[in-house]
Amino acid sequence: MTTRSSRTPRYLKRAFTAIGFASAAALVLAGCGGATGAEAPDAGASGSDLPSVFGAFATPLEEPWDGAIHAALESAAEDGLIEYEYTDNLHTADEMERALRDIASNQAPDIIIGDAFAAEDAVRAVASEFPEIAFAFGSGGEEQAPNFSVFDNWMQDPAYLAGMLAGGLTQSNTIGVVGAMPIPEVNRIVNGFIAGVAETNPEATVTVSFINSFFDPATAKQAAEAAIAGGADVLFAERDGVIAAAAEHGLPAFGMMVDQQEQAPEYVVSSLLWNMRPTVEAIVEAVVAGEFEASNLAEYSFMVNGGSSLAPINTETAFEIPAELIDQVDARQAEIHDGTFETPINEEAPAGSTTVGE
């Protein structure tokens, strides 16, 4: 359930899960107390012992990256671990800064979680002004003492496995990838995918185009159409919009962040899944224990720690997926889990990649 309090700014949205309407409404009206220093949060004005978490997202939640964070926070609220409210579509640095300062001043949550990629300086500045609040943000930078932790979607492992599948499925030996922009956190996923393709099909060519945006489905679809025109018969949708083009042309596709099979049940082979729940639990545990400090939370997104995975392979597609290819992928996945195989991490821009509009 999502609602607003007349006392809070119009953009504040509350997820009334786990705590019930009455206690949640009391929290909005009375505010919630944040942890200070090494002290754990107490019951606060709401009467709840649950730590309060606020999500601040730069994009609409339809964008899978922020959607994955939001889904993990919602599930934690549903399981009774936290109280949770959020705001999204803070698409400029100014909007993000204003919202964060208002949230920190008037809501005083124990934890604020979000993405800082488009507003790095603004988010860090606000965090430094409110050292009693634990900040944990998606960021390509380093942690900032005392209270600003960073995380990212380290999904090179499922990307590698998806690449193996793509290499075994292509008939034209050309595979198309459409990504956001050539930044390290995107590059390592795309390069992991390309490395997986090379394992099962060394002869295949992977074309990579970047749309220079985290959320522009129309442009992503156009880039996918261009890849198809260039001979690609398998697509990796690092950005939303690509699967629609694959379905229209009857081609295999791979989704990103969440299981996107429902977008095209006959054509989505699998998806790279980011599970933010281990990261959320690590943050909450540290805050409750009064031990939160600035750190890099990358490890909680690794496949070996349950932070990422490959969605179940869809065996009801409009095309055949060879059983031996699935076995090969399963074997490699087992090696990732037991630590005998480590996906190479390459954060350089993929060779030959292009950006739409260049």
Can you offer a commentary on this structure?
There is one protein chain. With 358 residues, this protein is α/β, with parallel strands linked by helices. It has 2 domains: 2-151, Rossmann fold (3-Layer(aba) Sandwich); 156-274 and 306-355, Rossmann fold (3-Layer(aba) Sandwich), CATH 3.40.50.2300. Helix content is 36%, strand content 17%. It is built from 10 helices and 14 strands. The protein has a 7-stranded mixed sheet, with helices on both faces. Strands 13-12-11-10-8-9-14 form a 7-stranded mixed sheet, with helices on both faces. α4 links the parallel β5 and β6 (134-138). The longest helix is centred in the middle third of the chain and has 17 residues, at 184-200. It is globular.
Keywords:
alpha/beta; Rossmann fold; 358 residues; 10 helices; seven-stranded mixed β-sheet; 14 strands; 36% helix
For the largest beta sheet, what order do the strands appear in spatially?
1-2-4-3-5-6-7
Q: Characterize the main sheet.
A: 7 strands, mixed
Which superfamily, in CATH terms, is the homologous superfamily of the largest domain?
Response regulator
CATH fold call of the largest domain: Rossmann fold
The average pLDDT is 87
| Named CATH architecture of the largest domain | 3-Layer(aba) Sandwich
Question: Rounded to an integer, what's the Rg over CA atoms?
Answer: 21 Å
Shape: globular
Q: How many domains in all?
A: 2
Q: How much helical structure, as a percent, in the residues?
A: 25-40%
Number of helices: 10
Please report which band the strand proportion falls in: under 5%, 5-15%, 15-25%, 25-35%, 35-45% or over 45%.
15-25%
Termini distance? 44 Å
Q: What is the H/E string? A: EEHEHEHEHEEHEHEHEHEEHEHE
Strand tally = 14
The unreliable regions are 1-39
CATH class of the largest domain: Alpha Beta
Structural class: alpha/beta
